[in-house]
Specification:
By secondary structure, this protein is mainly beta. About 5% of the residues lie in helices and about 50% in strands. The protein has a five-stranded mixed beta barrel. The protein starts with 11 loop residues before the first strand and ends in a 7-residue tail after the last strand.
């Protein structure tokens, strides 16, 4: 690394439940893409009576063979571990309004077992280090 340069890191790790089954589509060149959501609910500490639970939804996108595997094996409500990176997608609609959406581009997905501590040897691992080429 040369003097004055700085390396960035864009990595996210999530554990939650699938909010919906993965939806599969294909790019014009035939590359599979699966989209799904993960919901995470964090309970506040018992002494913090005002806050209650916080629920966050994350949009996840998987590409290639990982997309196909997610579509075939994941179901709504299933606990899941996802590793990836955050990407903000921007587009303009027909009325020239600019929209943006933050997404997790998954490169590793682990379905988690219910009520059983998760270890790598207990669960299937799905991964794909490919990324979209656009």
């Amino acid at each position: 690394m040369s003097e004055g340069s700085f390396q960035s890191l864009n990595r996210v790790t999530l554990i939650g439940r699938l909010g919906r089954r993965p939806e599969m589509r294909y790019t014009p060149t035939g590359k599979p893409v699966a989209s799904f959501s993960i919901v995470m609910t964090l309970e506040s500490a018992p002494r913090d009576k005002e806050r209650g639970a916080e629920t966050d939804w994350f949009n996840v996108v998987a590409w290639g063979s990982l997309a196909e595997t997610c579509k075939q094996t994941l179901s709504k409500g299933q606990p899941v571990y996802v590793e990836g990176r955050i990407r903000t997608r921007r587009w303009q609609d027909t009325s020239h309004t600019v929209h943006s959406r933050a997404e997790i581009i998954a490169y590793r997905v682990f379905p988690l077992a219910l009520a059983v501590p998760h270890t790598r040897s207990q669960s299937s691992s799905y991964s794909n280090l490919e990324e979209e080429s656009s």
